[in-house]
Protein 1
Amino acid sequence: MRRKEDERLITGRGQFTDDFNLPDQVWAVMVRSPHPHARINGVDSVAAASMPGVLGIYSGADCVADGLGEIPHNPVPSTQYDVKLTARGGGKVFIGSHTLLPTDKARYVGEAVAMVVAATQDQAQTAAEAVAVDFEPLRWVAETAAASAPDAPSVWDELPDNILVDSSFGNVEATDAAFARAKHVVSMTHVIGRVTGVPLEPRAALGWYDAKTDRYTIYAGSGGAVRQKQEFARVLGVEPAQVRIVSLDVGGNFGTRNRAYVEFGLVAWASRKLGRPVKFRAERSESFLTDYQGRDLISEVSLAIDADGRFLAIRASNLSNVGSRCVSLSPLSKGSGLITGSYDIPYATLRSRATYSNTMPTQAYRSSGRPEVTFAIERLIDKAARVLGFDRLDLRRRNLVPPSKMPYQNAVGSTYDSGEYERNMDRLLKLGDWDGAEARRQEARQRGMLFGLGFANYVESSIGSPRERADLIVKPQGVEVVIGTQPAGQGHETSFAQVTADLLGIGFEQVKIVLGDTDIVSAGGGTHSGRSMRHASTVISLAAVDLIEKGKQHAAELFETTADKIDFVDGSFRIAASNHSVDWFELAGLVEKASPDGSNRLWVRRDNEMHTPVFPNGACMCEIEIDPETGGLEITRYSTVDDVGRCINPLIVHGQTHGGIAQGVGQALWESCYIDPDSGQPLNGSFSDYGMPRFDNMPFFKTEIAEVISPTNPLGIKAGGEGGTTPALAVIMSAVEDALAEFGPPEITMPATPLKIWTAIQQARQLNPTGRGNA
Amino acid sequence: MLTVSMTVNGNPVTSEIEDQLLLARFLRDTLGLTGTHVGCDTTHCGCCVVHLNGVSVKSCTVLAAQANGAAVTTIEGVARNGELHPVQRAFHECHALQCGFCTPGMIMAAIELIETHPETLTAETVRDEMEGNLCRCTGYHNIVKAILQAAEEMRAPQSARAGGGTREPTTPELTTGEGG
């Protein structure tokens, strides 16, 4: 089924945030900190204030004077299925305040410390450069391990050691015993670096305060308008009903837009102060510096293995870098529940820590937390196979969770709902022609290329905000479904319409999905963590039952009978044993006609709360070729099998998987938010210095969907898309290691750039001049 | 301030503008043609590609003044008489877009690519030639497929029409602002 949303997007009629303009609007530009850590001793705006077009200059002190609140990020995952993260000793996690503009310190390069509003964007930019902020530079720390070290500078005075989370899980005694009796112990330390989401639409916001109605309207693309309405009501100190968020077409999200940005609140506040609409539009360099970033985890992991290759226990210690403010602990929490991966490992212990640092905050990014832990265990298994002499596929097969053990509770308490992990492997190895790889290796070798074959299994969790609401409104022209998810390309207008059409027995084209304007959408959990298809289909299914019941009652009144005499068949209401029948749209018309004041309409509202997580899973392989003379790398084959539960729209799910793969591959090979260790300056400020997946470095993909129906929700849905990303880091680095096996293999950190690969080859050749790589 | 005149999607426009106004901003902010997107300001991402006298340009680094006297075509102008352009149709049919932000630039770049490659297009050529357009959602897989499908369709009738077709005339006299 092709997508409904395409028509406007391919003809240039999308409604992205920057497409909105209001009469008389003016422009906001931020004054940003050039320091990673500095005390703010004052903001001198005298010179800037007299520059052409300038209407106002605001600092943190002005925010305080107007009583603006903090952004209530609520970063600690709290459903009963989330791993419970605490401060050391079980205490409350210290969350530093996130005000729109700081009054005390700037805590990362790029932090907005003042705002200039002027008639034009150019004027605001020029004036912003003339705002003199009296910064007193302080000692700073950016790198994850350094930030957690005892002598590190404190990002928050209230938390001298920067460590906001330190929690331990699992069975220490049993794990220790398993390690003591293990034949083998294999250990690794993984550094999964910092990346950023790079949605192609730079973030933007247009704020308007209407004094007549005492209401704020904020046009701002996000991952959940309803959530941001609540958050900005708190920031602005008004009732939620006084805030309207409009988030229609959103040009990519990947997690970066799921937390509120200070600029969204600032334009609304400035509009009230100035009596004019105020617009902000980030430049790409601002997006690189100040979009919420992703990953940044160090994972130390050890596996105890017996003589037959059975995994006995796993120990892990994970350290997450949340940046200068804690906006989400989801990545650490999600990963913590999945450290055993797809394997039946009886015992585990885990220490989960999080540290502040002088960097942009991190947030759940494209498969939050799962690529990191998948990387940790899959790379460790590759190493175990190599070092101990096992076949890497056999070693995995011996330890996979079998379908007979589903639902399976892993050693840190997560309950995998369903899955056929070994069958995924079998399907994948056929799809990717694993058996033919050796011949391709020889053929590549004849061309002078190093051939690498990578493999990874994965399991991930989809939890997400537990509540969702659907309004189903039948009109003579069609059915409207109002729902609180927030797509950024996932095709909700299509897949939700498919589900609704099926349930109501009407045509797909007769359903319209309405999203993203909080004056219409009254509640909903937004889009993150692969929650949308599962939550939406569940609440729409429940609402459809209610709607059919309501339709029967209306039809009964119409035909002067009782509802129990009405049958609903193929989208029509029929009186049993008669020829009388009415379809949805006729019925809606008759209901409207009978109620000229509009008090009676054919519609229902349904709320649903669903906590139980699902566990999408799969297997992935890829082939690469490396030119040993340049370190250049080409991906020649890439195949995945993904169990997404029931698949509503394969076209969309495959597309989501493709994009997910590209983002995972991007982190493995090119992407990095690098901070200069001497100056603390981020060095990736444009597409010139941030490596991206491109047309000419990506292959075609072979993706196959497995549908093992989840028992946790009515339609049996798990989640799609993030499964593309989850194993991608591991599978690429598995292939790089395989390609460089003859050179050691050397340890190469992500991103595995040509320079790193070439350097490793050169070093290995110098150490071993007669090696095969010198041919 | 200076005065520029050009045709945009076949309609003549004349406007008084700031000297430094970029073509992308002129199209979006002055003319309200918001289908042309700006994703990076630095000629890297290709979201802003339009045709200037039939040639693809990244309009975020072309001055509106450089388009004086030219014929500009934007994403809003490629469908004719309610009929989608074959490239637009192929993007829809192949699911070559997700969030849709890069899509206008992709379609504009792809149209020119197909028109300037009358020989059979290969996936490799598409990947090489489209390298200046970024997409974060699709992994490019379905975009390459869509461009190849559209090329196939466009080539069939075009060969019968001796190469001219019904598209915008591709007179390359004005080559400023190809953008690098």
Note: Chain A is about 30% helix and 25% strand.
Protein 2
Amino acid sequence: MTSTLRSTSRVVGRTVAVLLCGWLLHREAGAATPSVQAAYMLGCQGCHLEDGRGFPQRGVPALNGFVGNFLKVPGGREYLVQVPGAAQSELSDERLAEVLNWMLRTFSPAQLPADFRPYSAPEVGRLRKSPLAEVAPVRGELLRRLETVAYL
Amino acid sequence: MIRKWLHTLDRWAEKATRKDARVHSRRAFLSGLGASVVGVGAVTLLPVFRGSAFAQQAGSDEGDPNSCDYWRHCAIDGYLCGCCGGSASSCPPGTVVSDITWIGTCRNPADGRDYIISYNDCCGKSSCGRCVCQRDQGDTPIYRPQTSNDLNWCAGSQADVPYHCSLSVVIGVND
């Protein structure tokens, strides 16, 4: 009797959970996409995809669960602004700083250093003036540094 | 976190069920449970916004998705998948959607809002050849590849080339 009650209660509990989720999702119907996310969608998502998983098989690096690691080694903070997709994007310095901060917090919160300092517009503006001509060697060196300090 | 939440919910539901069992008949309970199951089914039919889902419902829609004039195709360059056995948001059988793509916006004349559109290609079969459509609004030269519709995005797909047809999928609202 007890086990029957338990399993029945689970069914009821999960039914309530599903109804609750459905109601919450329904409330968002037609809602505008947050503007920072919209900027990511229009400028980055085509390759890095909606959850930042990228397409490593085709050379599009995954952001999720990783990109925050770059802030742990010298040169990594600069690298995230100087990669062509960021430095040469059509976004203003202010918007690019917002999108980078949003990407780091959304896709890689667990890898962010405890003393994470968000990018500012002046910092982004300064760094993007020196975009990387050759990305792969710089990325390779940063990954080696990450391995060396055993951050991964 | 979810496990903990479900556990709390289970405990709450168990208490509620025990209390309910003391005051209501089994038949009444089964009738209520049946209504809940139907309710859950009905909820899944609602026009729900799913932020991370592939396709999203546009607020209101008008026009023929198989016509080049359809509002969602404002920047497309290719064959409309709706004329090739698929739809404006789903690939025809036997083809695979290219994950890597380009994304732009189109204004929906029905509500005046700008929707974010993903122009994914469907790949793996030779060109469909029906309903060719080239509108190019906001299209950029290929040295700005993230907003260029001249690229064969099937090169970024699991299925690889050849290109078959193109989608216009609503993925957000850019107000």
Note: The mean pLDDT of chain A is 86.
